[in-house]
Design brief:
The complex is a heterotrimer.
Chain A (H helix, E strand, L loop, with lengths): L2 H22 L6 H21 L7 H26 L8 H4 L1
Helix pairs in contact in A: 1-2
Chain B lengths: L12 H37 L1 H7 L4 H26 L4 H30 L10 H4 L1 H36 L9 H24 L6
Chain C lengths: L15 H5 L4 H29 L10 H36 L8 H24 L12 H5 L4 H28 L12 H33 L12 H35 L6 H14 L15 H29 L8 H24 L1 H7 L3 H31 L5 H28 L13 H31 L38 E3 L2 E3 L6
Antiparallel strand pairs in C: 1-2
Helix pairs in contact in C: 2-3, 2-4, 2-15, 3-4, 3-6, 3-7, 3-8, 3-13, 4-6, 6-7, 7-8, 7-9, 8-9, 8-10, 8-11, 8-13, 9-10, 10-11, 11-13, 11-14, 13-14, 14-15
The chains are: A mainly alpha, B mainly alpha, C mainly alpha.
């Protein structure tokens, strides 16, 4: 990896940071979190692929890099499946206390 | 992680290097799930507790958070420079880049600490001085997550700063020379701590900014 | 430079430092054996006291509070300090590098560090249990564990947290070793099944354990600082704790059973003198179990208040995970078909495993069904089911492996007559202990209660009687193994006529495992007219 690549990546990261912070102040409803997480994924990919050199790594290393995120996704999707469909109406916390 | 010659269980240097790289990535996969469990819990509470939970996020200091993200991303670039110059055979350049990395890491911790100080003054620290009447119970749960996440991240960063400082010294004294894996592995760890922050940043600071 | 012919890993170096600072995977395995045996003994004492207590319908040995602490101690010690580390850290450590023709694990010092984490975590937890105990059960359910439980919960949870590092580092070490240190010719489909299943186990260890670590940290934060995370009185959701806890703890069941399945897959072909039937199915079923095992945790929460849609999905996925397990059972039995079967002690333990695991697995299907599960949740039916998997399965597998590799580890033969007697005793003792508990549970006896209606007494007495036989069956090996070290005849390199690399080197092995790195020329479990065809080409 050359110094030019590193600083190009850095510049892209700064642009994405500016974009994500700015987008947070625009009222877009539930699209806000989608945008900010999509930008986070883009930033993470830059760091993973370039700085952490996954781009030139063996398939095995890439598989292990992906495994952690994939298993995390399983956890988020399956727990989320429960929370999306919860029908129990909980008393507002401030009343409970 | 000394840079002695090849371990007796390996046949070649390349085999040893691949093993240590794979080991590091397997370790990072565990770290993904360690922080990920907290993030998953956060996301579920965000669904479950709704707007009040999201609104609590707007009590965080977005300017400081954004500045800190920039600091940390820059430190990663410096770390990449350190690894690149080290593997190119330079001795002086990696020491300088590593020093820059560690200093930026320290800057992150200082900004983080000042942010916590502001939180303290606004009575936002659960178990210490959280003002329930002013902020509400849902906000308290958000701030429990906030302190767990930023605290554990800061701990990882402090460990990283110590290792980077040690590495800079060792390279400066010629105890670590190109060919081994140590520098690259330290780099991987540092970048990973950066990746964690990349995800914490929007979840903590950018939620509830336009409500 | 050749070592003298009588130099083994046991006598190459002497002194206490040569053991406590060793990086030899074989010596570290023996260190783990010492720790595992100690914790099995502690957990076993607790189990014995539980069964004594339950002989009468009312209090027998102590107060209900004492009983709560007893079953909590039994659960915590057996799950975290015996079952989870048992086979991987002992036989995995000793045999896995030899099976693939390596001289050690990829990271020997990390391996030693893992042992210290394990012992430190274990001692911290034992201290908490002895100082006054904990009354939450091994599951630490919220909000009970944070706001109502008494005792040294913080210390015990911290001990479990520490031992988690041992799990993670061990799993990481095995994964890298299997990927990077295989001998020339040892392709993936030539790996013994024990290696595959330990690899699958290691994947679970590194991907599930960190979630438990975070869950326990959150629990500690809530207990120590009284800040809301899971407790409803502070606005949290106790069901989230259960989600996070079981995301680790259900795959943990597969951490316990997969290595045993690996051991059985080694033993059955050797004592049937036949190749393992459907090798590729068996190895890919190990991987499938590890992967699907992550998708079923919600079946622990059918009555906990999770949404019905989630329960339906988890029920379906739980049926799915039974498929690869069943395929394995079919493969082991098909291997026996037209085999030249020998009934040595390891094979008897393996038979015990297959039968008991099948019962445990089939009753697991009952529990995956929502309506039946609602009826038997938190009854002795559950207790019986998971003991059939963990004791009938995992512990039988542990003993099977111990008897199988004992000659390799110690270089001595044990009296086979007594070993077969112990295997049969354990099998019958086990069934007498736990089969009545299925009936008890179906009749409505809840778990974790000291007192029960008098009409249940007959089943409890039967169960306690079985437990005493089981205890005898587990204690017997201690004596004949000790005898074998002192008086047993010397074992040859390959006393069972097996084919793996570990049987190509001396018993006990030299410090570097092999005089020269072996070259692998064929798949495992190959027999020609009942004669083993060794995997190693030229030893």
């Amino acid at each position: 990896m050359s110094a030019a690549t590193i600083w190009k990546c850095w510049f892209a990261l700064m642009l994405l940071l500016a974009a994500t912070t700015a987008s947070a102040f625009v009222p877009l409803g539930s699209a806000n979190i989608v945008i900010s997480l999509a930008i986070a994924v883009a930033k993470a990919l830059i760091v993973l692929l370039f700085f952490m050199e996954l781009r030139g790594s063996r398939a095995l290393v890439r598989a292990f890099a992906a495994a952690g995120f994939f298993w995390l996704l399983i956890m988020i999707v399956l727990t989320g499946a429960d929370y999306w469909h919860r029908t129990d109406a909980l008393a507002p916390i401030d009343q409970v206390r | 992680m000394s840079e002695r010659a090849i371990g007796f269980q390996y046949a070649t240097v390349a085999q040893q290097r691949e093993a240590s790289t794979l080991g590091m990535w397997a370790f990072l996969a565990t770290e993904v799930l360690f922080f990920g469990a907290l993030i998953a819990a956060y996301l579920n509470y965000r669904i479950w507790l709704g707007d009040e939970f999201i609104a609590a996020a707007s009590l965080t200091k977005v300017a400081l958070g954004t500045a800190n993200t920039a600091v940390l991303l820059t430190s990663s670039a410096c770390m990449a420079m350190a690894v690149m110059t080290f593997e190119a055979g330079s001795k002086r350049a990696p020491v300088l880049w590593l020093t820059a990395t560690a200093l930026l890491g320290l800057a992150f911790v200082v900004i983080k600490a000042s942010e916590w100080w502001l939180d303290y003054q606004e009575h936002l620290i659960p178990a210490l001085n959280f003002d329930l009447a002013r902020h509400g119970g849902v906000a308290e749960i958000f701030f429990v997550f906030y302190f767990c996440a930023t605290g554990l991240h800061a701990l990882h960063l402090l460990i990283g700063i110590s290792i980077v400082a040690w590495l800079a010294t060792a390279i400066g004294r010629g105890r670590i020379v190109p060919g081994g894996s140590t520098t690259r592995l330290v780099g991987l760890y540092w970048h990973f701590v950066d990746v964690v922050w990349i995800f914490l940043f929007p979840l903590i600071y950018l939620a509830g900014r336009n409500g | 430079m050749h070592a003298p012919h009588d130099e083994t890993y046991l006598n190459a170096r002497v002194g206490i430092r040569s053991w406590l600072l060793t990086t030899d995977h074989k010596r570290i395995a023996l260190l783990y054996f010492a720790g595992i045996t100690f914790f099995f003994f502690i957990g076993g004492i607790a189990a014995t006291l539980i069964r004594l207590e339950l002989i009468t319908p009312g209090p027998t040995l102590g107060s209900p509070d004492f009983y709560n602490r007893l079953f909590t101690m039994h659960g915590i010690v057996m799950v975290w300090f015996f079952l989870i580390p048992s086979i991987p850290t002992t036989m995995g450590n000793f045999i896995l590098p030899m099976m693939i023709g390596a001289r050690d694990l990829a990271f020997p010092r990390l391996n030693l560090l893992s042992w210290y984490f394990y012992i430190a975590g274990g001692l911290i937890t034992i201290a908490a249990l002895l100082l006054g105990g904990i009354d939450t059960g091994w599951t630490f359910y919220e909000p009970y564990s944070t706001f109502y439980a008494t005792g040294y919960l913080i210390l015990a949870v911290f001990g479990i947290f520490v031992s988690g590092f041992s799990s993670i580092l061990t799993g990481l070490n095995f994964i890298v070793t299997v990927h990077k240190l295989r001998a020339p010719g040892m392709t993936w489909y030539r790996l013994p099944v024990f290696v595959w299943s330990t690899y699958a186990t290691s994947l679970i260890l590194i991907l599930a354990t960190p979630v438990l670590a975070m869950t326990l940290l959150m629990l500690l934060a809530e207990r120590v600082l009284h800040v809301g995370l899971f407790s409803p009185q502070l606005g949290g959701d106790p069901i989230l704790f259960q989600h996070m806890f079981w995301f680790y703890s259900h795959p943990a069941v597969y951490i316990m059973i997969l290595p045993s399945m690996g051991v059985i897959s080694e033993i059955v072909p050797v004592f049937a003198r036949k190749p393992l039937f459907g090798y590729k199915f068996v190895v890919w079923c190990s991987i499938a179990i590890a992967a699907i095992g992550f998708l079923v945790w919600g079946h622990h929460m059918f009555v906990a208040g999770q949404s019905l849609y989630a329960s339906l999905a988890f029920s379906f996925l739980s049926y799915l995970v039974a498929v690869p397990s069943a395929i394995k059972v079919f493969n082991w039995t098909a291997t026996l078909h037209e085999g030249w079967i020998r009934f040595d002690a390891p094979m008897l333990y393996a038979f015990g495993f297959i039968g008991l695991f099948t019962i445990g697995g089939l009753t697991g299907l009952f529990l995956a069904a929502l309506p039946i599960d609602v009826h038997v949740t938190d009854t002795y039916f559950i207790v019986a089911h998971f003991h059939y998997i963990m004791v009938g399965g995992a512990v039988m597998g542990f003993f099977a492996g111990l008897h199988y590799w004992w000659p390799k580890i110690t270089g001595r033969l044990y009296p086979d007559y007594w070993a077969r007697f112990a295997a049969i005793l354990a099998f019958f003792g086990f069934n007498l202990t736990f089969f009545p508990q299925f009936i008890l549970g179906y009749l409505g006896m809840p778990r974790r209660y000291q007192s029960y209606p008098p009409e249940f007494q007959i089943w409890h007495v039967l169960s306690s009687a079985g437990a005493s036989i089981l205890a005898f069956g587990y204690a017997l090996p201690l004596f004949y193994f000790a005898w074998s070290i002192l008086r047993g005849s010397r074992a040859s390199a390959n006393p069972w006529g097996a084919t793996g690399l570990e049987w190509s080197t001396r018993s006990p092995p030299p410090p570097e495992n092999f005089a020269a790195t072996p070259t692998v020329v064929r798949a495992p479990y190959q027999y020609d007219q009942g004669k083993p065809c060794m995997q190693a080409g030229d030893v």
